[in-house]
Amino acid sequence: MEYEAVIGLEVHVQVKTESKIFSSVGVGFGAQPNSLTDPVVLGLPGVLPVINREAVEKSIKVGMLLNGSIPRVTKWDRKNYFYPDSPKNYQISQFDRPICSGGELEIELKGPSRNVMGEHKTIALTRAHLEEDVGKLIHLEQESLVDFNRAGTPLLEIVSEPDMHTPEEAYAYLTALKMLLIYGEVSHCDMEKGQMRCDANVSVRPAGQKKLGVKVEIKNLNSISGVRNGLAYEIERQIQVLLGGGTLVQETRGWDAAKGMTYHLRSKEESHDYRYFPDPDLMPVRIDRRWRERLRASLPEKPFDRQRRYFDQYSLPYTLTSVLIPDPELCHFFEEAAKRAKLPRQAANWIVNNLLGELGKAGLTLSESKVNPAKIAQLVNLIEEGVISKNLAKERVFPEMFKTGENPAAIVQAKDLGLSESAEELEKICSEIVQANPDTVAEVLSGNKKAINFLKGRVMRATRGKANPALVGPLLEKLIAEKG
Amino acid sequence: MPGEIHFQTLAQLQEALASKSVSSVELTRRHLDRIEAVDGRVQAFNSWDEEDCLRQAEASDERRAAGKIKGPLDGIPVGLKDVIAVKDQPLTCSSRMLERFVSPYDATVTSRLKNAGAVLLGRLNMDEFAMGSSTENSAFKTTFNPWDTSRVAGGSSGGSAAAVAVGELPVSLGSDTGGSIRQPASFCGVVGLKPTYGLVSRFGLVAFASSLDQIGPFARTVGDAGRLLQVIAGHDPRDSTSIDTATPDYSKALAEKKGPWKLGIPREYFAEGLDPEVKEAIQAAIDWYADRGCEMVEVSLPHMHLAISVYYIVATAEASSNLARYDGVRYTHRSDRAEDVVDLYFKSRAEGFGEEVKRRIILGSYVLSSGYYDAYYLRAQKIRALIRQDFSKAFAEVDGLLTPTSPFVSFKAGEKTRDPLAMYLSDIYTISANLAGIPGISLPCGFNSQGLPIGLQILGEPLGEANLLAIAQSFERAHDFIDRHPNPSPPD
Q1: Which of B26, B145, B338, B441 could lock B151 by a disulfide, CB 3.0 to 4.6 Å apart?
Q2: Integer Cα distance of A146 and B329 in angstroms
Q3: Is the Cβ–Cβ distance between A23 and A40 less than 8 Å?
């Protein structure tokens, strides 16, 4: 029997803010344990929460980027459960009036090859709600310690509908979501730092069946590929149980990345009754039209919209866009260069194929680059105007630009790398080369077209690389033809 | 300064300090002496730090000598219910759970008192986590009624009421969730005011029921209650439920507002269960207002009979969540018999909480449980809205409502401890004000045949404290109840 998997994802994203969601203490990663705390974060007797406006605004923006509906009034509820990483033994979260309802996320599946765009799909979302993060337990041999630095970090939980069917779709969903959140300047989504975390719900059913199978929740999926691998394992496990005549039970399982398998954590019977109720310490937040409009006006262009624009506006090939699009800073760099370059596509080429490579080799980031967009554009224009050959640009000019940050035009002048201006002079040199190499000419004439490259090389050597290759080829062909 | 300094009003003490006929150190010393003399019988205090009090008083005297007083309370001793945070002072909530907890921060009211120059004198006993009506639920001691030390001071702010009644303090702060300021004020023969919900910041008030809790003053006169309210009231950005509005000048309002008023008598407050002597005293007060030209009308609050039920759902639901943080993991009592973390929760909470607190946590957890939420919590919230509506209809017609504060006078210690429902009924007249968020004041309006004080409650519209104080003061000034003071007899 054919089985189909049904997957829904719950993604927790730390919203990047100056201070914590309910107190003025700063937010951070890797600080001295329990240093980013105050009486409010620690839930000491008598303290009260005050909602962080920045966290609300960024969450509304995420809701808008996800095409969700933003309610006129949103409110906070208490989710009650005991755990030592929770300072109050309740988490301030949202129950029935989340900051975003519904929505969708455009994803791109893996294409048939790296150079070919994959299929695009839209995954339906249930909701997104804003809550507080909890602390972190550190287990030693004899005792356990708790660090509340993370407690109170604003956390946006984005819940998808059970709308995905393969681990690849889940992978694509997380990749697209991460890209969107980076665009919205909501989070860096560094999963290793816990800025983005994912739980997956998965069930299988006979293909064609409407009714959903028994749902299993997988936790500890600590990377985007962990989600893909965990789901692949779990789907196969569930199918094997059913094929073996067994039955599945609703449960929560953990993902052991080292062993590459999921394991039982707890069953449905052990699940909590969270006793949600409206938090009486916090007032509902009204999101009026003016606020809404102001936030809408500040939304960034979405990644896939930008990619489509790059196709249309700059005629960029898919491969170049797939490097540019995930990195908004790089996109900005490119667009600044494109504004000044006669051939924006060439600017993209130089950025993706040369600049990124050099930066990578030097271990530098884009913001540390001495080459700025204007210089890339100038380089493109020098080539396009026939001032310099592409080869020389690559071999001599760009490395110098990269090292010193000097203008390409200045480098060309200083090193005297400009193409020879006079066509007469070039014709004279070519003619001499043809005269001096009768054997090669004969070879070309006898049908070995590639032999002409030897002559081209000679011309380039004679001109110290300054000859315009676009002119040299036809010129040589003409002179050889005259011989024949 | 002559005679019994400890029964002087706040206004008199302010004058005495201003005229330098007494120093803050002397004032503080005399109150500490009074505590030494009578607290063994009344047991109003959980703790006080004599050295610290005198240091504060000295600092005040230095400010005054330099002509740099901080505010209206400079040098005046003020006591705080042991549920309001003061930096570096114990914050026990009269619970074993927090027996060793010292607050690392100041409540907003504490900062305001400090900024006004007050000498913060001691921590006042209460029912554990403010749950109770007699202060018998304190894990440490029962506070007795200064008028008859075999009787209770009321609760939950019993310590705050008794300390003011017996002259250990001129004024104090308590908190009122269902009557916890007004009922003990009535039992102890002092003035107690529960402000409008949101008028006084709750930041630093250990939460019992967040949507009902409110800090308020105890004093021996209505004017003094207004003076203390003036200092603690006002918007606080650290409390999201605090109302952002300008605080009126209560003393000025008291001087200007002379009535007559249109006053309502809610008939539901005079039904069965009301002690005849209490009823008689309240009737006399009503007659007094009528005699001096107030228009008296009978009003109805049709959902009043549901108030106790609604209260014990809403308050316990919030409490079950608010008290979850006391778990044995960090700053609370921690059981040393625990086997694992779940066991640590169970045993620490079993050992750390008293019976009444446990009862309310269990009740509150139950009403929030899935499958019961709609039937209990949600329905209670709907009725709460109706109760609020009853009051707004009434206040569209009248300036204030006159009622008894409690259906009976102070009862014998131990009399109701085995019957929680009977205890809950002590608050039958006070609870609805918390549900509606409106202000209420209790002031002495007589004594019964055994010499026990009776309290008159006046309820007003939201943010109508100025009116409420004026209505109360007109009665107070025409009577001499405030001139009578208890003198607890020494033990045999």
Answers
A1: B145
A2: 10
A3: yes
Of B203, B324, B370, the CB nearest to A90: B324
Whether the CB of A33 is below 8 Å from some CB of chain B: the reply is: no
Is the bond preceding A203 in cis, omega lying within 30 degrees of 0?
no
Cα gap A77→B378, rounded to integer Å: 14
For residue B330, the chain A residues in CB contact (below 8 A) are 42
What are the φ/ψ torsions at residue B119 (nearest 5 degrees)? -95, 110
> CA A175 from chain center: how many Å?
6
Residue spans in chain A of domains classed CATH 1.10.10.410: 423-483
Give the total number of structural domains in chain B. 1
H or E stretch at A265? strand A261-267
Pick the catalytic residue from B111, B157, B172, B180. B180
Nearest Cα to B281, choosing from B427, B466, B481?
Answer: B481
Per the listing, tokens 């006898």 go with A446
Say if the Cβ atoms of B237 and A50 lie within 8 Å: yes
The answer for residues whose C-beta is within 8 angstroms of residue B191's C-beta and 6 or more apart is: B185, B218, B219, B220, B221, B222, B224, B225, B441, B442, B443, B444, B472, B476
Asked if the C-beta of A50 comes within 8 angstroms of chain B's C-beta atoms, the answer is yes
Q: Write out the H or E segment, with its range, that includes residue B77.
A: strand B77-81
- Cβ <8 Å between B203 and A45: no
Q: Is the dihedral of CA B428, B433, B437, B439 positive or negative?
A: negative
Residues of B in contact with A277 (CB under 8 A): 317-318, 321, 368, 373, 377
Residue in B closest to A44 by C-alpha: B325
* Residue B211 annotated among the catalytic residues of the structure: no
Tell whether B346 lies on the interface with A, counting CB pairs under 8 A: no
Cβ separation A277–B317 shorter than 8 A: yes
Contact of A92 with A154, CB cutoff 8 Å: no
- Residue B415 sits in a domain whose CATH number is 3.90.1300.10
Per-block average pLDDT, block size 10, for chain B (492 residues)? 79 96 97 96 97 98 97 97 98 98 98 98 98 98 98 97 98 98 98 98 98 98 98 98 96 93 95 92 98 96 95 98 97 95 96 98 96 95 98 97 97 93 90 98 98 98 98 97 86 50
Q: Do A281 and B373 touch (CB under 8 A)?
A: no
Q: Is B335 on the interface with A (CB under 8 A)?
A: no
Q: What residues are paired with A90 via a beta bridge?
A: A80
A 65-84 → B contacts, CB under 8 A = 78, 80, 82, 84
Tell me how far apart the alpha carbons of residues B173 and B222 are, in angstroms, rounded to a whole number: 14
A420: confidence class by pLDDT, cuts 50, 70, 90: low
What are phi and psi for residue A469, nearest 5 degrees?
-60, -30
Q: pLDDT tens-digit profile of A251-266?
A: 999 999 999 999 999 9
CA A87 to CA A93: how far, in whole Å? Answer: 14
The domain in which residue B228 lies consists of 5-267+395-483
Q: Do B104 and A44 touch (CB under 8 A)?
A: yes
Q: What is the CATH number of domain A423-483?
A: 1.10.10.410
Residue among B213, B238, B325 with most chain A CBs within 10 A, to mutate: B325
How many Å lie between the alpha carbon of A148 and the closest alpha carbon of chain B? 12
A348: helix, strand or coil: helix
Contact B349, B337 (CB under 8 A): no
> Do residues B7 and B170 lie in contact, with contact meaning Cβ atoms separated by under 8 Å?
no
Sign of the alpha-carbon torsion through B318, B319, B320, B321: positive
Pick from A80, A275, A281: CB nearest B240: A281
Structure-block tokens of residue A262: 């999921």
